[in-house]
Amino acid sequence: MQDSSIWIEKFRPRRFDDIIGQEIIVKRIKAFVENKNIPHLLLAGPPGVGKSTIALVIARELYGENWRENFLELNASDDRGINVVREKVKDFARTKSIGNALFKIILLDESDSLTRDAQQALRRTMEQYSNTCRFILSCNYSSRILDPIQSRCTIFRFKPLEKESISKIIDRVCKEEKLKVDDKSRDALIYIAEGDARRLENVMQSCSMISNKITEELVYEIVSSARPKEIKEILELAIEGKFSNAKNKLLEVMLKHGLSGLDIIKQIQQEIWNLKIDDNKKIELTDKCGEIEFRMVEGSDEFVQLEALIASFMKNDKPYSK
Amino acid sequence: MTNHIPNKLNEIIGQDTSKILKWFENPGKKSLLIHGPTGVGKTSSVYALAREKNLEILELNSGDLRNKERIKNVIGEASLQHSLFGRKKLILIDEVDGISGRHDYGGLAELNKIIENTKNKIILTANEIFDSKFSMLRRKCELLEFKHVDYLDIFKLLKKICDGKKVKYNEIILKNIARKNNGDVRASLIDLNMNMIEDKINEVGDLREYAQDINEVLRIIFKSRDVDVLMKILSTLDEDLDEVFLWIDENLDKEYSEDDLINAYDKLSKADVYRGRILRRQYYRFLVYQSILMSAGVGLSKKEKRNLYISYQRPSRILKMWIANNRNAKRKSIAEKFAGKTHSSVNKAYKEFDILVNFLKDEKLAEELELDDDETEWIRRNF
C-alpha cells in the first residue's frame, strides 16, 4: 500500500506522529495503545477527518508488520446484514489472536448504515468476545447507533479538519508530488476541502493530471464537475414560471450525475441564498425546502417531492386576480 | 349499439328531458345548447324528440367538414325555410366543441350568424362549452346541462334490456359494467352488447383498452371540479394506483399552471408521503388518504375548469431512470472498487466520481484498482 498510486492511500499516515490535526483524540488513543489495551471505540464524525486512519494506526502500532492477521475490516460495500455479523464477525472474534497480541480488532466502517437487526446482533457479540476482540466502530452520526452499543464504547467525536491542518497536508502533498500552489489556489483548496482530507487529496490528484501548477481556476473547475451548476438554472426557470422546462432539466441532471433526491435538495437549500429574490421569500422557500425534505424521507417518490418543491418557487406574492 | 334506441324523451335515463320538451313547445331562444359528458344521452335525446314530434333532422356533426362555406351551404339555407310538406325541420349541430379552429376555419363565426337569424329550431350539443370561444353561443342559446348518470340507473336500464330480450344475466356482472363506465350510458350499452353472447351475459373481460381508461380518468381529475365525481373516479378504476400516480405526475404541468400547479403538486406530494408510509409499515388504511389526495386533492386544486384539449402522455420517467441506472452501473462498480481499496465510502466515491475520474484514467491506477477492460473502456468513452 505504501507505494499506492492513489494519493489518499499514499499519504495516509502510518503512525500517530504522522497524523495532522485531531491532536486531543490522538493523544488519548495513543495513551491506550501504549498500555497495550484499548476499549471498544466509537469514532464519530464527517468523512475524511481521520477515523479510519486512526483505526489502522492503532492496528499497526499494536501488531507491527503483521497487523493484518489480527485485524478485520468490514465496510459498507461488503454485505453486512445480520447474517454477516452473526457468522463472519463471530468467526473472527472467537478465534485466538496470533502472535503476542492480547486481542484482535474488528473495524466496522460506516457502522451507522448497519441495519437495526445487525446492530442488535452486534451488541451481544461485543460482550461475549470482549476478552479476545475489540471493536472499532466508525460512523458519521452517532445518533444512528443504538444506545446499548454506544454505552459499550468509548466515544470520540471528530471535527472537520482545521484550516491550518488542511494547509499542512497541502504542503506535504506538494512537496512529495512536486506541485506548485500559490496563495489563491491554496485558499481555494482549503475552501473546497470543507475540512475533509480525502476530498482535498482527491481534488489535488485530479488537478495534477492536468498540470503540476495548481491554479484557483483549475481547482474550481475540477470541483464544479461534481456539483452541477444546473441546479441554479433549474430554480431560475421555475421562478420565471417555466415549470415544464425546470422539471425536465431536473430529471436530466439527476440521472446524468446519478444524484439522489436528498443530494439535490441539499444543493437547492444552499442555492436559495444565491438567488435574486426577496430575503423574506428566501426564508419562506427554506422552510418549504425543509418540509419537502421531511416528506421525502417519509414518502416514496423523490422526484415528485422535488417537483412539488420547484413548483413552489413559482409562487409570486401577488394576490390571485380573477 | 342496436339494443336500445330511445323512442321517447322519457326513455332517456338520468336526465331532466322535460326541459327539452318545454323548450320545444315554448322556446325562449330559437337554439338550445345541450352540454355534458360523453355518452349520457345528448344526441339520443334529440333523436327521441324528433321521433316523438315527427321532425326531420338535418344534422352536421364532427364527422363532417364544418368550415364557414360548408356550414353556410348546409345549414344556412335550411335555417331560413320551412319544409314544403309540413314536416318540420330540426337542425342538429352535434359536438360543437369539435369544430376545429384550423380545419374548420370560420365555422364558429358562421354558426353564430346562423343562430342569430334562424327561423327553424336548432339544437347544439357539446362536452365542454366554457371556453371563451363559445361565449357568443352561450349567450345566444338556451343552455341545458346533462350529467353523469348514476351507475344504479344504468344498471336498471341494462337489466330492463336483458329482461326484454329474455337474456340470462348475473346482477353482479351488470353492475360491474355499469360501474366501470363512470356514468357513461353509451359505453355501458356497448359493453353489454359485447358481452351478450347468444342468450347469456358472460363474465366481463377487459372492457376497454387500458390507455383509454386511464385517459378518461385523467380527463376527469384534470377537468372536473365536481367533488362527487372526483371522489368516485379512482374507486371505479381497476388499475394500479401507482400507475395512475405516475400518469398524473407526467401530465399535470400540461393541464395546470401557476397557483393551480403549485397546489396540485402539494397534494401529490402528500399523497406520496402516505404511499411511503404504506410501503414501510404495510398500513393499508392510508390508501384512502393517498387516493383522495390524488383524485379530489389534485382535481380541486384548480380554481376553474380548463377546456383545452390535451392528449396525455404515457409516463416516461421510470423508463428514463432504468436506462440511466444501466448507464450508471459501471460508475457504481468502479466506485465500489475504489472505496474498497481506500477505506472509504462507496456512496461518497459514487457522488464524487466526476472528481475521481480525472485520475482514474491513469493506467497504473486502473491496474491497482483492478478495473476490468469494460470499465476502463467505459471511462475512456464517457469522460
In short:
Chain A is of the alpha/beta class and 322 residues long. Chain A is built from 15 helices and seven strands.
Structure commentary:
The complex is a heterodimer of chains A (322) and B (383). With 322 residues, chain A is α/β, with parallel strands linked by helices. Chain A is built from 15 helices and seven strands. A five-stranded parallel beta sheet of chain A has the order 2-3-4-1-5. With 383 residues, chain B is of the alpha/beta class. Chain B folds into four domains: 9-145, Rossmann fold (3-Layer(aba) Sandwich), CATH 3.40.50; 148-205, Helicase, Ruva Protein, domain 3; 207-314; 319-382, no CATH class. Chain B contains 19 helices and seven strands. In chain B, strands 2-3-4-1-5 form a five-stranded parallel beta sheet, sandwiched between helices. Chain B has a two-stranded antiparallel sheet with strand order 6-7. In chain B, helix 3 (68-80) links the parallel strand 2 (56-60) and strand 3. The model of chain B is unreliable at 204-212 (pLDDT under 50). The chains are: A alpha/beta (322), B alpha/beta (383).
Task: Give the tags.
heterodimer; A: 322 residues; alpha/beta; two-stranded parallel ribbon; 7 strands; 9% strand; globular; disordered C terminus; B: 383 residues; Rossmann fold; Helicase, Ruva Protein, domain 3; 4 domains; two-stranded antiparallel sheet; 8% strand; elongated
Strands side by side in the biggest sheet of chain B:
2-3-4-1-5
Helix content of chain B: 55-70%
E-strand count of chain B = 7
Quaternary organization: heterodimer
How is the biggest beta sheet of chain A arranged? 5 strands, parallel
Average pLDDT over all residues of chain A:
89
The Rg value of chain B, from CA coordinates, equals: 29 Å
Name given to the CATH homologous superfamily of the largest domain in chain B: P-loop containing nucleotide triphosphate hydrolases
Round the Cα radius of gyration of chain A to an integer and report it.
Answer: 24 Å
Helix content of chain A: 40-55%
User: Biggest β-sheet of chain B: count, sense, barrel?
Assistant: 5 strands, parallel
Distance between the termini of chain B: 62 Å
CATH names the topology of the largest domain in chain B as: Rossmann fold
Please tally the β strands of chain A and state the result.
7
